[in-house]
Amino acid sequence: MEGASTKGGVLSLLSLLEVQARSRRHVPPQRSRVKELRAEAEALRVRREQLKTEIQTHQSLQGLRTSLDKQSTHEEEEEEMDEDSENSQLLKLMARHTQVKDLLLAHHLIGGYDIVKTRHGKGVCVSVATAYEGVCLETYNLEMDLKPTLRICRHNVPPFIPLSGLAEQSDMQTDIRAFLDTLSQHLNAFAGRKQQLKLVKEQHKTIEVMESNALCSILVLMFTVPKTKAAILCTLDYSDHTACLPARVQFECDVKEILESSEWRKNCGLLMETPLHKALMTMKKMGNII
């Protein structure tokens, strides 16, 4: 009986200790809570000081950037600063860095086109470069007024490129990048067709260029068939002015049997799918033209 009583007393003591432990977990110690609040207050004070420092630095950078902008437009002289001060040199570098970042952002937003401020910031000049098969060709420039509305005031875009129509079609006022992309497509396609014609004249002396227009959208060539010496008139129609390949190819020859052959049907497809100077080289290797 004594053993049972002792056992019961131990179990009661263990139960009491377990209840006390649970109570401690549910009621947080006051001292620990005070420490937490003090740590939070200290973190807020540190953050406040950081924000003050960032604001002061930002204000200094803004002043320096204003000074740099005035210097670039020759409106006012740059503010005097102590050249020997390490802080001033650092701030200058930071200001120049943020200025370059803004320029890169603007360059990205307008699709990678080169843009330069003109007339003390009242206008911009945008350059659109053209290239074909990795060869850089002409660069075209547009000077635009920024106020009261975006307007093209000067440019060197060829007159046969419908500049005004493209500006209206792309809604230049709200989406300048779409307008520049469309204009770039037209200019690069024109440059590509023009370059192909140049290469034809340089590489294929036996082929006579009978006709071509300023836009290089219509091209008429004269071929000579090796065996019969028959002349074939080839008309290439580039009705899609944003493409470097023709939408239609037409042959004319007095010897109709030649045009009805499978070779010349293949030649038609070749001219529609391959750059002109390369297609003519293939036709020469196949023995279809001189």
Tell me about this structure.
The chain is of the alpha+beta class and 290 residues long. Among the domains are: 60-74 and 84-109, no CATH class; 114-191, Copper Amine Oxidase, Chain A, domain 1; 204-285. The protein is built from 8 helices and 8 strands. The strands form 2 sheets. The chain has a 4-stranded antiparallel β-sheet. It has a 4-stranded antiparallel β-sheet with strand order 5-6-7-8, covered by helices on one side. It is elongated. Residues 1-7 and 75-81 have low confidence and may be disordered.
Question: Secondary-structure map with pairings?
Answer:
Elements: H1 2-26, H2 30-73, H3 86-109, E1 114-118, E2 123-132, E3 135-145, E4 151-155, H4 163-170, H5 176-203, E5 208-212, E6 218-224, E7 231-237, E8 248-252, H6 256-259, H7 262-273, H8 276-285
Antiparallel strand pairs: 1-2, 2-3, 3-4, 5-6, 6-7, 7-8
Brief characterization of the structure:
It is built from 8 helices and 8 strands.
- Biggest β-sheet: count, sense, barrel? 4 strands, antiparallel
Instruction: Report mean pLDDT, rounded to a whole number.
Output: 80
Helix tally equals 8
**How does the overall form come out from the CA principal axes?**
elongated
Order of helices and strands: HHHEEEEHHEEEEHHH
Approximately how much helix is present in the residues?
40-55%
Strand composition percent: 15-25%
User: How are the strands ordered across the major sheet?
Assistant: 1-2-3-4
The Rg value, from CA coordinates, equals 38 Å
N-to-C CA distance: 126 Å
Structural class: alpha+beta
* Tally of strands: 8
Unreliable spans: 1-7, 75-81
